[in-house]
Amino acid sequence: MPNLMHQENNGAEHKPFLLAAGDPGTRKRRRNLGSDAVPSRLRRRDFYPAVLVILAAIITIGVYKIGENYDRVVDEVTDHYIVRTPHAAETAVPEKTERERSGSHTESYEENFRATQIENYRRGVALMINIHVTHHGGTAFCRSIGHALDENKSAPRGNSACNTGAAWPGEEFLEIRNDPWKGVEKTKQKSLKLRKYYHMIGWEYHAFPQRGPLKQTDWEGPNVLSVIIMRHPMSRMLAKDESFRDKNKRQEDYDDGDWSKFAMLDRNDNYALRILADDKGCCSGADTSRRYLDGAKELLRKMTYVLDIECLGKGMRKVAEELDITMNWNEKNEAVHHVHESSENRITNRTAYNYLVEKNKLDIELYEW
Q1: DSSP one-letter code for 217
Q2: Exposure on the CB side of residue 236, measured as CA atoms within 13 A
Q3: pLDDT-derived band of residue 185, with 50, 70 and 90 as boundaries?
Q4: Spatial contact of 264 and 343, defined as CB atoms under 8 Å apart
Q5: Enclosing H/E stretch for 130
Q6: How far apart are CA 365 and CA 290, in angstroms?
Q7: In 3D, which of 296, 293, 346, 337 has the Cα closest to residue 135?
Q8: Are 359 and 268 in contact (CB under 8 A)?
Q9: pLDDT tens-digit profile of 4-55?
């Protein structure tokens, strides 16, 4: 703030107080004392104007000084508290690590957390979790990788694709299967407990997870090693599963009416995207918001391994090699992905085919990403 008081004092010309030449009192005194005499003192009534002027000057100086000090104090106090407001205080907080920054996925950071997970898995302190989208090859992965031939590597057995099975631990662990796990601490606690029993488990989904989005789990944590297998949506919806088609007919025998009904099934609406989405609101066919696609991509970035069912055998061998796993390989594994005609040729109703491609365009984009 400019020092107005300083400028005022420098610019003002201060003159001694003099009585006006025409004042009657002055003429009277001059007559009594002589025309050339100067009075030694002034009458009290003549002194009042001088006192008033002096007081006015003192008050003026005081006001300016107070104003100057007030502005200085306000500036200091304002500066003091601005530094402590929530937005400005962010600069004073110790810098977060790359993992703590929202949306931060630099290549070096991704390589770092994956390397940590792989090393911890080899040391027996990281649990492999296969996010098993139904009809994405999770059963074959469980059979080959989960049920590895190594003595120190086991997985839940039975008909549940490593999800639970007969060998699942006792009642104290039943709550652990309630996936996805929520938060850093829960992920660490449950993965370390289960790692004492298994080297790998599966979480299979055919819809959005009942306990909330998969992003809740700390997939970048040091005690999990994640795997997901992706499949082209048009191929997946043609998988031979009675819940996906009319159980009374083979797809080869579908007429136009059957294909029209097939195209309208909820299961054929962005199936994988629905499972990987940020919330239960997904999906709405061709009108599905791209925010669900962005959320699913963010989740996939956090996976240790993303495999493609088109080359699943090769992908599993690579995983086994990096993790020192002796695969339980057999002919069923070789035939894990049967070669079919293209979905365009298999869906003989052209209108239904085009509708399904448009309806699942974001799911297709996620696969091709």
Answers
A1: B
A2: 26
A3: very high
A4: no
A5: strand 127-133
A6: 10
A7: 337
A8: yes
A9: 444 444 444 443 333 334 444 444 443 444 444 444 444 555 556 666 667 7
Transcribe 139-186 into DSSP letters.
Answer: HHHIIIIIT-SSTT-----SSSTTSS-TT---GGGGGGGSPSP-HHHH
Amino acid at 135: H
CB 136, CB 206: distance < 8 Å: no
For β-strands 224-230 and 200-205, DSSP reports them as unpaired
Residue found by looking up tokens 């610019």 in the block: 11
Look over the chain and give the mean of its residue pLDDT values, rounded to a whole number: 75
Q: How many CA atoms are closer than 13 Å to the CA of 136, on its beta-carbon side?
A: 25
Alpha-carbon distance 354 to 263, whole Å?
Answer: 10
pLDDT tens digits, one per residue of 297-338:
999 999 999 999 999 999 999 999 999 999 988 765 555 555
Q: Considering the entire predicted model, what is its pTM?
A: 0.68
d(CA 269, CA 288): 10
* Contacts within 8 Å (CB) and 24+ apart, 92-99: 99/220
**Rounded-to-10 torsion of CA 108, 110, 115, 118:** -170
Q: How far is residue 75's CA from residue 258's CA, in Å, rounded to a whole number?
A: 77
How remote is the C-alpha of 323 from its chain's centroid?
A: 29
- Tokens 């649990």 belong to 127
